[in-house]
Write a structure and sequence with these properties.
By secondary structure, the protein is of the alpha/beta class. The protein has 15 helices and 7 strands. The longest helix is centred in the last third of the chain and has 22 residues.
């Protein structure tokens, strides 16, 4: 086995999105034995999802870790690596001894949460989750995309949260002993046991000062719904200007979605995540049911709570 201190990156939090990857990242970033790079999600290895890439060259990727202290483990947290069909192989080619952490969540709740994040970040123009869900088939063909959709695969909730084949891909490439699978609901309900399992998996000692897994990227809601809708879905004459304007600002290091989320949205009040009607939730849950049954076999988990 190679010396972990010599690898460009040792730890990969590969998603899924909206499944506590950010909370796990924040915990590890605060651990003195770990250096987590910035940006948090370089998405360098998911070359089949080019719209997400923050870093495009090996030289630039290696530069993300130049400030890592000697002997520290190096990590990153690109939440769409799990969905990528090539990230596992690409990571393995760089470091076959890497350790992979993925976290999974009730796919219905995760889909709704992702919809709201995209909506808040002006990458979704539908005002209702049900409408967005029903557009997936057409959007996979390039139809009915929002004015700004840098990576259309983000809008494919059914494929994003059908976990079985995605998890199996990492097992096949790295072996089960190098892949830790966590459950979002357990991270929230029993964070201390999750911390113990995570540190054991990474061969890390407990930090000198106890650290907690804290909730991050909480659900937000628009401060001015009318303005939010205008920015997410402007009049047709203005739509051709949206994507190039945002790309130009991103190139300058200005993230319009982050600015808009900070100033035009706020933390959602209690119950906002449950705003999707029960009929829609039942329909979405039925779509995920075949994958949940397969996932129970793959992981030997009881997913009764997910199945409703």
């Amino acid at each position: 086995m190679s010396d972990p201190s010599q690898a460009v990156c040792n730890i990969f939090l590969v998603g899924a999105p909206k499944c506590a990857t950010s909370s796990l990242h924040l915990y590890l970033r605060r651990h003195p034995g770990v250096f987590m790079c910035s940006p948090k999600e370089p998405h360098f290895f998911s070359t089949d999802l080019p719209g997400l890439a923050e870093v495009k060259t090996s030289k630039d990727y290696e530069a993300l870790f130049e400030d890592a202290p000697e002997g520290a483990l190096r990590g990153e947290a690109s939440a769409f690596y799990l969905r990528s069909e090539v990230a596992a192989q690409n990571i393995h080619a760089m470091n076959p001894d890497a350790k992979i952490v993925l976290s999974l969540r009730d796919p219905v709740a995760a889909s709704i949460s992702l919809y709201h994040q995209l909506r808040d970040g002006f990458r979704e123009d539908q005002t209702r989750f049900a409408a967005s869900w029903d557009l997936q088939e057409g959007r996979a063909k390039g139809e009915n995309l929002p004015p700004y959709a840098p990576e259309p695969e983000q809008l494919q909730e059914l494929s994003l949260y059908s976990y079985t084949d995605q998890g199996a891909r990492y097992f096949d490439v790295f072996g089960r002993d190098r892949v830790l699978v966590l459950r979002f609901e357990r991270i929230k309900a029993d964070p201390d046991s999750v911390i113990t399992e995570l540190l054991d998996f990474l061969d890390l000692p407990p930090p000198p000062e106890p650290l907690a897994i804290t909730e991050h990227n909480q659900r937000r809601e628009s401060r001015i719904p009318g303005l939010t809708q205008f920015l997410a879905s402007p009049p047709k004459p203005l739509r051709p200007l949206i994507a190039p304007t945002k790309r130009a600002l991103n190139a300058l290091g200005i993230k319009p979605s982050e600015i808009m989320m900070k100033y035009l949205s706020r933390k959602a009040g209690p119950g906002k995540d449950r705003a999707v009607d029960t009929e829609t939730q039942a329909r979405v849950r039925a779509a995920f049911m075949p994958d949940m049954l397969r996932l129970e076999e793959l992981l030997d988990w009881d997913l009764s709570a997910w199945k409703g």
